[in-house]
């Protein structure tokens, strides 16, 4: 066999090896996740007022971004600020609740706040009341809040640190377990 014959066989072999290599190293088709859906809508820099069944304000929400999940009919929110009324017959102030992330159930009866949660209001005497935690679940219709993690409650002269918060937002009553209390002198 001449040198041209050997060159042809060598080039044909190289072409076959290259073709086989390309075939096995090709990128697989992108996998589409099952159940992955697009949002119904996205709101940016908005204010939303949610009403309860009787037409009274349940809560007001302001945030830079909200995305609605069409399957769950829930809302995912970035850096939400909620205003939760104390109630029609409450003599205390509304609650201002902030967090890094928020979630609202389809019926608007549960709010889940996560990351640097701060809730502020005033008591019947006009003194500030605040709660800080990493997780807070708020039930606006029943004016309740719960947290399974460490929570700090502050009032003038008193700081409470504890676990498993149960709070009545309209009455400004809190129940904590494993509590550590610190009393501070307040100016008169």
UniProtKB/TrEMBL annotation:
Gene3D superfamilies: Lipopolysaccharide (LPS) transport protein A like domain (2.60.450.10). GO terms for cellular component: outer membrane-bounded periplasmic space; plasma membrane. GO terms for molecular function: glycolipid transfer activity; lipopolysaccharide transmembrane transporter activity. Keywords: Cell inner membrane, Cell membrane, Membrane, Transmembrane, Transmembrane helix. Transmembrane segments: none annotated. The keyword Repressor does not apply. InterPro entries: LipoPS_assembly_LptC-rel, LPS_export_LptC, LptC. Pfam families: LptC. PANTHER family: LIPOPOLYSACCHARIDE EXPORT SYSTEM PROTEIN LPTC. This is Lipopolysaccharide export system protein LptC. It comes from Cognatilysobacter bugurensis. The lineage of its organism: Bacteria, Pseudomonadati, Pseudomonadota, Gammaproteobacteria, Lysobacterales. The gene is lptC.
């Amino acid at each position: 066999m001449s040198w041209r014959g050997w060159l042809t066989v060598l080039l044909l072999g190289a072409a076959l090896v290259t073709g086989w290599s390309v075939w096995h190293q090709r990128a697989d088709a992108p996998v589409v996740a099952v159940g992955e859906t697009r949002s119904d809508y996205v709101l940016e820099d908005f204010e939303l007022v949610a009403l309860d069944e009787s037409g009274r304000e349940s809560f007001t929400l302001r945030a830079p971004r909200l995305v609605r999940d069409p399957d769950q009919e829930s809302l995912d929110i970035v850096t939400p600020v909620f205003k939760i009324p104390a109630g029609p017959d409450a003599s205390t102030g509304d609650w201002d609740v902030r967090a890094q992330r928020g979630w609202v159930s389809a019926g608007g009866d549960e709010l889940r706040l996560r990351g640097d949660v701060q809730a502020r209001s005033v008591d019947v005497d006009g003194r500030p009341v605040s709660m800080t935690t990493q997780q807070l679940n708020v039930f606006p219709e029943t004016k309740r809040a719960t947290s399974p993690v460490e929570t700090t409650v502050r009032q003038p002269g008193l700081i409470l640190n504890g676990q498993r918060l149960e709070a009545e937002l309209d009455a400004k009553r809190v129940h904590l377990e494993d509590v550590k209390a610190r009393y501070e002198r307040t100016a008169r």
